[in-house]
TrEMBL record:
Natural source organism: Ramlibacter aurantiacus
Pfam family, one: SEC-C
Highest taxon, organism lineage: Bacteria
Protein name: UPF0149 family protein
Matching Gene3D superfamilies: 3.10.450.50
Amino acid sequence: MKDLQAPLTPEDFDALDEALDAMREHDESIPNWEFCDGFLAALVCTRREIESEEYWPVLMGESFRPMEHMEFVLGFKRRLAEVRVLFQEAMDQKPDEVPRYFPEMLDLRGAHLALPQDEREGVDLDQLPPFGAAWAHGFLWAVEAFEEDWAPPRDKELAVVLDDALDAIAALTTPDTGTPSLSMFEENGPPTISEERLHAYGHSVWSVLDLYRLWQSLGPNTQPLRKAPEPGRNDPCPCGSGKKYKKCHGA
């Protein structure tokens, strides 16, 4: 039996990809794993703990039935627990220490160029998503879906921290217009990523940790109690006494 607390292995990630591919044969809207990894990172950052019955319909669609895809569900939750531990660990690190958290981002262009020549024909590299784009889209999808939990804090300085961090993540959704100089798929592979993109990637990782620290420092979001509107002074009292409100409970 698998240890549900153990970090995912490369084989586990492959199994998650395969499970999503199988689901996508019946529903084209099913996201890829990179998108899912961005989504779950946002779940960990969110100000309150969001339960699975809330996030499954947002991520996988209203028709998703977790009990029918338990291998995927357990793998997702293992990764969720792993990311939570890594984020908490980063809270206790010194400023000059490098965090152990690495988003699951795939250099699709590098992966394509690593294929045999006959399997590469007919694919336009410029049409493939840039490095980190799917992950960033997944993160921002969760932010938009649970926007009340991501409402800017009243403190103006903290609100700026929030905006800057989200902007850094959103930057990964834009095209990589720099000159390719390195590969994130294999060390000596053909260059597919620019130095600017690599910098944007690093900035996004630190920004995610900033978001986690921000919401952890503020605590769960508390909504004000909604007070029912009071009746007019000459209206009947809602207690049912038959008297006017001003002569009864409004006195």
